[in-house]
Amino acid sequence: MLLNTQSDGSSFGTVLIVEDEVMVSIMIEDFLLDLGASEVITCTSPNEAEATIGKRAINCAILDVKIGGADSFGLADALTHRDVPFFFATASGPEAIAERHRHRPILAKPFSNAQLLEFLHATMSGQGRDC
Question: pTM of the full predicted structure?
Answer without folding.
Answer: 0.88
